[in-house]
Amino acid sequence: MEKPLDRHLEELMSTPGVTGVVCADTKGLCLAAKGVGERASSGLFSSIAQQAAQLHPDSKTSPVVCLETDQSMILLKNHNSVTTAIHKTLS
Amino acid sequence: MMQGIDRIPDSAGHIVMKEDGAVVASGGDLENDEVMADQLMRLTRLSLKVLQSSNSSANFRRLSVIWDDFQYVITVSNHRVFVCKRRPDPVV
């Protein structure tokens, strides 16, 4: 059952610059994780994606949230009740 | 006090807040929008928690919330939270 999700994560991990991926459901439960992404952060990622969507609840699409530090960035998006967090190094 | 945030060329609005969420300045689309200021503050706090929980020494630089036609860009400096609503660069 998890094979398609695992396959997508492997695909993402092979993208240049990607160091980790975490998937979480709407309640923050970690569905899958690979690389540097911490499973424990799945709840926060889910909350951030939901809070960002609340900024404009009438919008048809959910926003992409980009959290940048001086070393890396985390990209977050909620789609079909699944929040995906992608850790990337700054190129 | 404003640090020039009101002079960003493609800005559609801005909010400057203290750490406790009190609005120091606002303008454009976000002028006097206390509800939005509160939601943006919550989002900023959640984002900062991610960095705290990851035990990394990485410093928060910028938080962007991006839709197709506009985005919010948030940064923290000198105990102030700066939010700018921006239209993306037109694609030629």
TrEMBL record, chain A:
One of its GO terms (cellular component) is Ragulator complex. Its main location: cytoplasm. It holds the Pfam family LAMTOR5. The keyword Cytoplasm applies. Keywords: Cytoplasm, Lysosome. SUPFAM superfamilies: Roadblock/LC7 domain (SSF103196). Gene3D superfamilies: Dynein light chain 2a, cytoplasmic. It comes from the Eukaryota. This is Late endosomal/lysosomal adaptor and MAPK and MTOR activator 5. GO terms for molecular function: guanyl-nucleotide exchange factor activity.
Automatic annotation (TrEMBL), chain B:
GO terms for cellular component: lysosome; Ragulator complex. It is found in: Lysosome. Transmembrane segments: none annotated. Keywords: Lysosome. The keyword NAD does not apply. GO terms for biological process: cellular response to amino acid stimulus; positive regulation of TOR signaling. GO terms for molecular function: guanyl-nucleotide exchange factor activity. The keyword Signal does not apply. It comes from the Eukaryota. Belongs to the LAMTOR4 family. This is Late endosomal/lysosomal adaptor and MAPK and MTOR activator 4.
